[in-house]
Amino acid sequence: MKILLTCAAAAMLLAGCAARLSDDEAQRRAEEVFRGSFTKGNQKMAAAVFQQDEVQTLCTKYRDAPPKEIADRIEKSQAATIAYPASGKLMGDWREGEKLAQDGWGMRFTDTDPKRLNGGACYNCHQLAPQELSYGTLGPSLYRFGRLRGMNETTLRYTYGKIYNPEAFNACSAMPRFGHNKVLTPEQITHLVALLLDPASPVNK
Predict the structure, then answer these.
(1) Residue-number span of the structural domain to which 133 is assigned
(2) What residues have CB less than 8 Å from 134, skipping those under 6 apart?
(3) Most distant pair of Cα atoms in the chain: their distance
(4) How far apart are CA 74 and CA 41, in angstroms?
(5) What is the model's pLDDT at position 41?
(6) Distance between CA 160 and CA 194 in Å, rounded?
(7) How many domains does the chain have?
(8) Crossing angle between the packed helical segments 94-101 and 186-197, to the nearest 10 degrees
(9) Cα–Cα distances in angstroms (integers) from residue 82 to residues 155, 176, 191, in the given order
(10) Which of 3, 23, 36, 178 has its CA at 20 to 30 Å from residue 184's CA atom?
(11) What is the pLDDT of residue 19?
(12) pTM of the model
């Protein structure tokens, strides 16, 4: 009898798992769980997570593969948001850039110290230098970035702009819009530019 009850219970469980939720219900439940995970920590960041801007809405609608006319519109609008340093200096200190690249502070909702600047956490997605033991592979390797591309004005502006707002170059990019979303300051971005392009940087050794 116990075996029969156990089998019946298992069958009911499997039947329940097999029942497909509607898209609206699945979305509602997913958002409920997601919001519940932000019960403490950086509430300003949490609020931003739940509100998509126009670009995010379009990328969601087209599942990160918008038609060419939409992609062109996104890239044009996002290129207009790039704010270059007033000084015109795009190359900072690669040593500061290296610290930023390895610093994940501020990218988590529990990081709440308002006085501490965010890090870039570049290692989460990219290889930067050969001595790194662990790095992400979501983005391309950046090892020898400067040696391969050279350090001219065009490359400087591209590198700064790509970090500031990658959507200006690749609509629906998986890379965060560090400058546009004020995750990093323009000065911090110049340090990352130096990390990638300065011949003395470990990236280019």
Answers:
(1) 42-204
(2) 123
(3) 82
(4) 32
(5) 66
(6) 10
(7) 1
(8) 100
(9) 15, 14, 16
(10) 36
(11) 64
(12) 0.82
**7 within domain boundaries:** no
Per-residue HEC secondary structure of the chain comes to: CHHHHHHHHHHHHHHHHHCCCCHHHHHHHHHHHHHHCCCCCCHHHHHHHCCCCHHHHHHHHCCCCCCHHHHHHHHHHHHCCCCCCCCCCCCCCHHHHHHHHCCCCCCCCCCCCCCCCCCCCHHHCCCCCCCCCCCCCCCCCCCCHHHHHCCCHHHHHHHHHHHHCHHHCCCCCCCCCCCCCCCCCHHHHHHHHHHHHCCCCHHHC
Encoding tokens for residue 169?
Answer: 């170059």
Share of the chain above pLDDT 90, in %: 64
CATH code of the domain in which 161 resides: 1.10.760.10
Question: Per the domain annotation, does 80 fall within a domain?
Answer: yes
Amino acid at site 119: G
Q: Six-digit token pair at 69?
A: 């006319």
Q: Which two tokens stand for residue 77?
A: 């609008």
35 falls within a domain: no
Is residue 63 situated within a structural domain? yes
What residue type is 14 in one-letter code?
Answer: L
Per residue in 26-72, pLDDT tens? 888 888 887 777 676 667 767 776 788 999 999 999 999 999 999 99
